[in-house]
Structures are given as C-alpha cells and as structure tokens.
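Researcher: I'd like a candidate sequence for this fold, 299 residues long. If you have to choose between options at a position, lean toward the conservative one.
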C-alpha cells in the first residue's frame, strides 16, 4: 500500500513526470560514463607500481563500489523513474525494493571505505617508521572484506522493516562522517605542528620509513588533500539527500518531497562519476596510467 501511495504522489503533477523522464535518461547516460571512468581507474591502479599496496587496495575498493553504482544502481534508478513516467505501478513496486537494497549496500561500502582511507592516512602520519609494519596489505584486505560483507548483508533488513534499515544507514553514515572528520582534523593539526617545528629549527632530519624511504611531508600532505577533496565531494553529494530525508520526517511525504527525494538521489549517484575525475586530476601516478591506457580503451 505504501508503494502505491508513493507512486500516486510521484505522478501528481506533469512537472514530476517531466523530471522523472529527465532523471531516467540522465541515469542511462551517466551510467555509461561512470562505468568507463571507473574501469579506467581500476586498470590504472592495477598497472601503477608506485602506490603503497594498502593504499592501492583502499582506492580499488572505492572504485569498485563506484563501478557497482554504475552497473546496478543507475539502471535500477532509471527503471524506477521510467516506471513512474509510463504509469506502470507493478514495475514501480517490483523494482523499488531491490533498488533500495542495492543503493543502501553500495552507499554503505563507499562510506566505510572512505573512513578506512582517512584512518590509513592518519596512521601514516602518526606511525611514520612503523606504518608499513602495522598497516599491511593483508590487514587492509581483511578490513575491506569485512566492510563489503557488512555492507552487502545488512541492507537485507529492508525486507523486514524499511524504518530499521533507514535508521541503521543513518547511524552508519553519521559515525563514518564523525570518524573521518576527526581523522582529517587531527592530521591537519599534526601537519601544522610539524611545519612550525621545521620553521623553528630551520632544518630537521626527515624520519625514515621501513626500507630506507624518506617520509615526505609535502607528498603526504598532497595525498591527504586529495582524500579530503574526495570526502568533501561525498558529503556534498549526500547532503541534499539527507536534507530531503529530514524534511520528510518533519512534514511528511507529498509530491514535492517525493520529487526532491528522487532529484537528490541522482546527486548521490553522481559522486561515483566525480571520483575518477578527482583521481586523474590530483594523482599523477594514476593520471599517467590512464593516459597510457586511454587509446586502448577508446579503440
């Protein structure tokens, strides 16, 4: 019954139908570009030998979740929108549940991976010499496997209760945002303190990592800035959606709120297309491999 109410509210006005048509077409187009972009990034990460293996695994996990959005969520969202456009209530109600479960799953994996990346950058700064000994490839892969298993399993609670699922995803995302924000704030404070020490002492010997490699504060700061940019884009894409959710909880659901819900959902999925662009822009190693591979992909 709830699905029928949502369907009728989504078709109340001609403007709603026009917006759903646009969102459906845009989803198909964006899915193509997102698949292409994240496939290039995964190929570049596989070829890149200069990145630290745990960091590469974390970026691969984020790119895989973005690729999953392109392959699964975008098409399901397009069908969801076109079902409303063509007045097919049976298809609308049939697609709504798998669409919500897949979207919640991949969204949770993205936030959990972003949190793991922020903690990786935090430990890289605080551990210094011991970083490569503590943050090993096997431990990171185990952590990512746990994130994916949790992210893929818990949204099945939607089959039991939509309210429980929405509450859990809100708690998960809130905790991830808090942990990630605290990590980057501590990193920023630590970098500034380190720079003040350099200015005070003029020259200090750079601490060495395992294997004789020097810790470059400049290179590390650039990597942190890149990850902070990706995190900020994630928040910017999700913020309109959470605003729509809060408005729904306060004033209830109507045609305008339903329309806003669908529009802000599209912004959430757009994040999966923006991430590959940030990788190519901010990470020279990945950009080089993408430029090498691009002629092969285009041909």
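Model: Candidate sequence:
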């Amino acid at each position: 019954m709830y699905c029928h109410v949502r369907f009728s509210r989504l078709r109340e006005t001609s403007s709603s139908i026009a917006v759903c048509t646009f969102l459906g077409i845009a989803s198909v187009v964006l899915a193509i570009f997102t698949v292409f972009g994240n496939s290039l990034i995964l190929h570049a990460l596989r070829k890149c030998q200069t990145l630290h293996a745990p960091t590469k695994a974390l970026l691969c996990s984020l790119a895989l979740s973005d690729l999953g959005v392109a392959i699964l969520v975008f098409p399901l969202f397009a069908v969801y929108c076109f079902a409303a456009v063509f007045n097919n209530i049976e298809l609308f109600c049939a697609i709504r549940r798998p669409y919500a479960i897949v979207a919640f799953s991949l969204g949770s994996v993205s936030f959990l991976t972003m949190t793991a990346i922020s903690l990786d950058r935090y430990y890289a700064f605080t551990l210094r010499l011991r970083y490569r000994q503590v943050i090993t490839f096997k431990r990171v892969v185990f952590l990512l496997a746990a994130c994916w298993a949790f992210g893929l399993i818990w949204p099945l609670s939607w089959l039991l209760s939509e309210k429980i699922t929405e509450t859990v995803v809100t708690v998960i995302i809130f905790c991830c945002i808090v942990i990630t924000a605290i990590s980057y704030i501590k990193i920023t404070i630590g970098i500034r303190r380190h720079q003040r020490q350099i200015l005070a002492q003029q020259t200090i010997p750079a601490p060495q990592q395992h294997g004789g490699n020097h810790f470059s504060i400049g290179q590390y700061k650039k990597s942190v800035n890149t990850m902070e940019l990706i995190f900020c884009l994630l928040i910017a894409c999700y913020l309109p959606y959470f605003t729509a959710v809060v408005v729904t909880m306060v004033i209830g659901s109507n045609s305008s709120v339903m329309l806003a819900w669908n529009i802000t959902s599209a912004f959430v999925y757009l994040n999966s297309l923006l991430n590959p662009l940030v990788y190519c822009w901010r990470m020279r190693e990945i950009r080089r491999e993408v430029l090498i591979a691009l002629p092969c992909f285009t041909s």
